Amino acid sequence: MRLDKLLANTGYGSRKDVKLLLRKKHVTVNGKYVVNSSSHVSPDSDIIEVDGKGVHYKKYIYLMLNKPKGYISATEDAREKTVIDLLSEDVKPFSPFPVGRLDKDTEGLLLLTNDGELNHHLTSPKKEVPKTYEAFVKGKVTDAHVDIFQGGVILDDGYKTKPASLQIISSNDQSIVCLIITEGKYHQVKRMFKAIGMEVVYLKRLKMGSLWLDETLQKGEFRELTEREIAQLTSTGI
Predict the structure, then answer these.
(1) Which one from 44, 85, 103, 105 is the annotated catalytic residue?
(2) Best exposed site among 3, 41, 164, 210 by fewest CB in 10 Å?
(3) pTM of the model
């Protein structure tokens, strides 16, 4: 791949910044200075250094974010804060994007990656990847509601959802439930409860496929996935 693209993707600035590094002889490939930004290198076999520090390139990046309220699941927006704003500068050059979406006021697990194939696998309706949520709901959720969700809920536009697993954690004037769905329609969880006359007042995603939210992450914090987590997601997609 081109040397300037590799360096830009590993956090050394824009293509313009990288060209300046090269011209000023800060970059070596296999011990020799390279000044041509269009030079091609092999990330697997060439030894690339900037000011004597090794450059370790990776094609894909996989991030787990504990999304807080107030951020939209997008890469850019003219008016709203996006989840990309929560990332550090060293990972932004990889151009990660959200896998699926969480509403602006929904918290919890959000996966970001630049792996388009994995994104498709996890978000394709045909794959039916399970997503687990914790929800606080106004009203008393009962076993009758559990049965309704299991049979599929008819939304406000007439669409009938796929069967969903609803578990009651506590049931009172405000109930706490755990919900597992295998699709991701717009505002789906909120619309499902609205269809049975209830309102979701708090929503948090706990799990997507095989990936659980790391509860040690504070709201707004992220980390790279472990090799084991990546292997689980990429080998099975769930």
Answers:
(1) 103
(2) 210
(3) 0.84
Q: Could you give the CA distance from residue 25 to residue 199 in angstroms, rounded to a whole number? A: 61
* Residue with tokens 């300037």, as numbered in its chain: 4
Q: Are 8 and 19 in contact (CB under 8 A)?
A: no
**Which CATH number belongs to the domain containing residue 42 in this structure?**
3.10.290.10
Longest Cα separation, the chain: 72
Examine the domain organization and report whether 218 and 107 are in the same domain: yes
| pLDDT tens-place string over residues 57-93 | 888 999 999 999 999 999 999 999 999 999 998 888 8
CB 129, CB 237: distance < 8 Å:
yes
Containing domain of residue 39, as a range?
3-54
Active site residue 156: no
Cβ-count burial of 229 within 10 angstroms (0-12 exposed, 13-18 middle, 19+ buried)? Answer: middle
